[in-house]
Amino acid sequence: MSEAAVVVDNLWKYFGASGLLARWAKKVPALQGIDFTLERGELAALVGESGSGKTTLGRCLLGLVPFEEGRVTVNGFDMKALKGREEKKFRMTAQMVFQNPYASLNPAFKVRDALVEAVKTHFPQATRQHAREEVEKLARLVQLPSQRLDEFPTSLSGGEKRRVVFARALATRPSFVVTDEPVSGLDQPIQTQLLDLLRQIHERQKSTMIFISHDLRLVKFLATRVLVLLHGRIVEDAPASSFFREGPGHPYSKELLKSAYDPRPNLTIQNHRKAPERWKTGCSFRHRCQVGGRGNSLCADEIPMLVEVSPGHRIACHLCSPCHE
Q1: What pLDDT, on the 0 to 100 scale, is given for residue 162?
Q2: DSSP, res 305
């Protein structure tokens, strides 16, 4: 088997106050013991409610934020050892598509000029003419009409802005891409077009991709693997085919899937936000669990570990019977 594209081993990330308050403020665990591997060419989705740690995990995978414990290796690069030339080499192989295209596009630059600069930044030996030719190729790849390259970002539609952001991320020809809610806030037809575009890019580039989303309907359309996060922990890791065909195994995953497809607008998973230190022991979903976690001493006292219940399918739940056969 070829070397894995992404290896995450016992990753812990904390957030806390900075400056004068840092000495006394408690550190809050944003990611807790994250552990998974992605093979080259996989398209995995990170799903979960707001605050589950999806974006933080994506940024840790790209070395954009530091982490305190564990190890992350992407394309053979150790994220804790990234600096100097090694970091520059890594940035050529991995890119992130950020959630807000409006904040990531400079309104003072026309699209063509911004993309030319992106190409020149990563390939300084390229002539400006060659960079312009590369921009035309990128525009065709993301299905952006050539004439739109000569517009300012403020003149573009929401869908066109996303295509420009895709093009800029692909300028380095990366083998690993993290996309953070890349179609959020768009109308459903535009979402479908962009998801289809992402799938085409993934297949054509043969890249490894992580798709961050809170909407399992979009995940079903695109992903080959699903990782469900809850309070900074992976509670389920499954092939997308079995996750959607046979159904998920974790009670939280089941509620996520149910709420995504139920037409009733008021159907949501019961919210039960507690201070993070309350989850140092036991299952963090127990107070919302409909299976019986609230009154189960095991759920209250022990944090459930990920257990493989079938090939490639792991679940962290004390009440999932295959986990304890």
Answers
A1: 92
A2: P
